[in-house]
Amino acid sequence: MEKLQEKIMADGKVLSDSVLKVDSFLNHQIDPVLMQAIGEEFASRFSGEGITKILTLESSGIAPAMMTGLVLGVPAVFARKRKSLTLVDRLYTASVHSFTKNETNDISVSRDFIDETDVVLVIDDFLANGQAALGLIDIVEQAGAALGGVGIVIEKGFQEGGAMLRNRGVRVESLAIISSLANGKVEFLEEEKAL
Ligand code: G4P
Q1: pLDDT tens, residue by residue, 19-58
Q2: Which residues are listed as membrane-spanning (predicted)?
Q3: How would you label 12-38 residue by residue, b for 16+ Cβ within 10 Å and e otherwise?
């Protein structure tokens, strides 16, 4: 997605060979016009899948998930990382290990919002090792719902998550795929080369 690549080039900051900071438009401050375009792009890519629900993980997945839900006309549900006061029973839960942060979080979603009649599109801001996506897919499976695919805003193509999910037969659509962050420079992979 050209608009996203341009934004990454203009405002992204390479923090190391493996980490890209994009908190001026995605992870902290949010660019609503870009998020709208992202929602339209995901909606168009997954329009044939019969999606009934979007599932993401708080917090940075919520903006692209909501914009996609708006365009597709379906609700967006976010998995919680922390226990909520009101979300106490009837839960689907999965463990998500972050290699970046070296911590494991239990994520949870109320059983009230996803069931076996749903076709779920999983959306997330970053795909690195794929652990967050796997946790969300686990929840889709616990619900007996169908997985319509996984939509990622920024995939780090040099980490293993994308290949791991595609090898499992999951349809992964990433709007920008970064092939390298070496020497402080962002390089993109043409999308078709990642498949
Ligand atoms: P994984 O889910 O693909 O295995 O990723 P990993 O454990 O490596 O990532 C943990 C957190 O760090 C996730 O956010 C993920 O989105 C984010 N992340 C991974 N690589 C990058 C990167 O290069 N740049 C940025 N900006 N973030 C990255 P999170 O902890 O869930 O944060 P948030 O959603 O609350 O913002």
Answers
A1: 999 999 999 999 999 999 999 999 999 999 999 999 999 9
A2: none
A3: bebeeeeebebeebbeeeebeebbebb
Question: From the CA of 50, how far away is ligand 1's center (Å)?
Answer: 28
State pTM to two decimals: 0.95
DSSP string, 50-63: ---EEEEETTTTHH
In DSSP notation, 25-54 reads TTSSS--HHHHHHHHHHHHHHTGGG---EE
Has 169 been labeled as part of a binding site?
no
**Structural domains of the chain in order of their starting residue, each with its CATH number:** 2-83+90-149+160-175 (3.40.50.2020)
97's enclosing H/E stretch is: strand 91-98
